[in-house]
# Entry
Amino acid sequence: MNAENYLQYQPFLPEAASGTIEPRHVVVALRQVLRRTRLVVGEVEAIDHAARRARVHLLEGSEVDLAYDVLVLAPGSVSRVLPVPGLAEQAVGFKTIDEAIHLRNDVLARLEAAAEASDPAHRRALLTFVVVGGGYAGVEALAELEDLSRAALKRYPELRGEHARWVLIEATDRLLPEIDPSLAEYAHRRLTRRGIEIKMSTRLDSAENGIMRLSSGEEFAAATLVWTTGVRPHSLAARSGFPIDDRGRITCDEYLRVRTAGGEIVPDAWAAGDNAAVPDLTTGRLSPPTAQHAIRQAKQLALNVVAASRGRSPRPFRYRNRGQLVSLGRFRGVAQLPGRVRVRGFPAWWLHRTYHLAKVPTLNRRVRIALDRTVALPFPRDVVALGSLQRPHEPFRRAAAEEERRGAG
# Structure
């Protein structure tokens, strides 16, 4: 069961947002890769594990109860939203392909509006973009979208002499806390050199009416707000009565079996991914919520489910981190490799692209993404904004209203 009929490859969202990669190439059709599987497209609302039944809200609106024998819980995570006034009305996240497409259209639409704006203050607001969160998602989204806006501005003679203002707000005292401090500092310098304003140890206190009010006391207007301050586990496990830890993750043992706080194994229940608290035997801590760990957990979980069904003992999950890769936009990046090897600049950018190209599922997608990137190198960026995709009914409704007026006349 899945809420969409595709698998989304998360590391490619920034390139999809900037237009380097065609958005359809970032997703893989589940029906294409799951051949001996019944796929139910819908959202699981609750699970009654004692009865081995799940209540599913289907795509067309109805609900159905599905019976099962063995349960694998992997609903992942959702954006962590704080109670900031105006945030829900003004902000967009950066966790799904829909949000990536929306942001690309939004950035380009703001440039179009700014080109026609006569009021300098309104034009400045339209050209101001705010990203909250200095982790992987925030830095990579900011870097790619800033590249896009810089390239697009050259096509607007009305905006000659203007520049897009990009502001990154981070509540802690450093960017990219997951990587080596020297690499994080390099990333900070590279982004600052591009004119990006980075406000460390600063919080967004309010975004009401498009006015960004910061904890430092600074206030300014911005038409676009991107929220990337981390994730929280999906609430399905908690709603369904499964044992969870203090962060809302399903408690598991090293075999990826669901277990209670007292150490009892929940029969026929397994979990993996961002929503699972899985012991990492190589570090003695819990596995971090990264794609690296989730992919390896999924493989071990599948083997363990098969082993258990055949009366064999499962094997523990073991995985040593292979390093961290961060893109800083076109031709720039940082990488932390095994053995404390640190790489920066073009080599890190190339490693980032090559590694993720090799890991995206299916040869079909790998070839298409390689072609997208090859075409993007010698040619300028596409700056078409398909904002109407977000309002598909509007042209027809306008036509219907016009017909009504004609009939009344």
User: Anything to note?
Assistant: The chain has a mean pLDDT of 91.
